TrEMBL record:
Pfam families: Methyltransf_11. It comes from Kaistia dalseonensis. InterPro entries: Methyltransf_11 (IPR013216), Methyltransf_Superfamily (IPR050508), SAM-dependent_MTases_sf (IPR029063). Its EC number is 2.1.1.17, 2.1.1.71. Keywords: Methyltransferase, Transferase. GO terms for biological process: methylation. Residues 71-166 form the Methyltransferase type domain. It comes from the Bacteria. GO terms for molecular function: phosphatidyl-N-methylethanolamine N-methyltransferase activity; phosphatidylethanolamine N-methyltransferase activity. The keyword Methyltransferase applies. This is Phosphatidylethanolamine/phosphatidyl-N-methylethanolamine N-methyltransferase.
């Protein structure tokens, strides 16, 4: 199915007409909310399988930790929430109220009693106090936010020293099949403001986060899992 992603993008074109506009590398918050309001009802159907390996790899790492209070940044529709260990306590944040409505319904329907809160928030300006969480995770978030460094700073700030900051995303260091796959995904990913040309170097080299694990995941290694220790 060489044109799968182009086909899906065409079918759901009406959902992406409100996608974020770009000006001086910033994304208008209202446009982002409008775009995700359109995508919220079908997000899991379109992206659920495609990004499943990345989500599961991140959650699997976190499930190896002792019972913890975790922050999921960019929780979206809450598609990952049922996969956490029940002795973890999860706080999820997202910019989109419509995506959060889907997540809350998932929590209710699946009776997920370990979800502490699902809150509307800007990932680059969190209200949580310093060192509020034992670990934090951002799945497919860094390549869409207008200020990745601000998000990284916030993830580090709210994570306790010695805790883990876990990221998973696609980064622009691909060749062969991975590069071809990325090119096929471009029409669909652009409808949500994702930057397929995002370099991982933009989020490395921080003094407050020490990289302890980096590995490709998924059937063709298309995504990358990064695990940092909060220094």
């Amino acid at each position: 199915m060489p044109d799968f992603f182009e086909d899906v993008a065409r079918k759901w074109k009406s959902f992406s007409t409100g996608r974020a506009s770009r000006k001086s590398s910033r994304i208008d918050e209202t446009a982002v909310k409008t775009a995700y309001a359109r995508w919220a009802p079908v997000y899991d159907w379109v992206f659920g399988y495609v990004f499943d390996s990345g989500r599961r790899a991140a959650v699997a790492f976190l499930n190896e930790l002792p019972p913890s209070h975790l922050l999921e940044c960019g929780v979206g529709t809450g598609i990952s929430l049922p996969h956490y260990k029940t002795d973890h306590r999860i706080t999820g944040i997202d910019l989109s109220p419509d995506m959060l409505d889907v997540a809350r319904e998932r929590v209710r329907k699946d009776r997920l009693t370990n979800i502490v809160a699902l809150e509307e928030a800007d990932a680059g300006d969190l209200s949580a106090a310093d060192a509020s969480f034992d670990a934090s995770v951002a799945m497919f978030v860094l390549t869409v936010v207008p200020d990745p460094q601000a998000v990284m700073s916030e993830l580090a700030r709210v994570t306790k020293p010695g805790g883990a900051v876990v990221l998973v995303s696609h980064f622009a260091d691909q060749k062969g099949w991975r590069k071809w796959f990325g090119e096929k995904m471009a029409p669909l990913s652009s409808s949500l403001g994702w930057h397929m040309d995002f370099s991982v170097d933009r989020i490395l080299g921080r003094s407050d986060l020490r990289l302890v694990d980096r590995r490709r995941i998924g059937p063709i290694g298309f995504f990358t899992l990064l695990v940092f220790e909060r220094v």
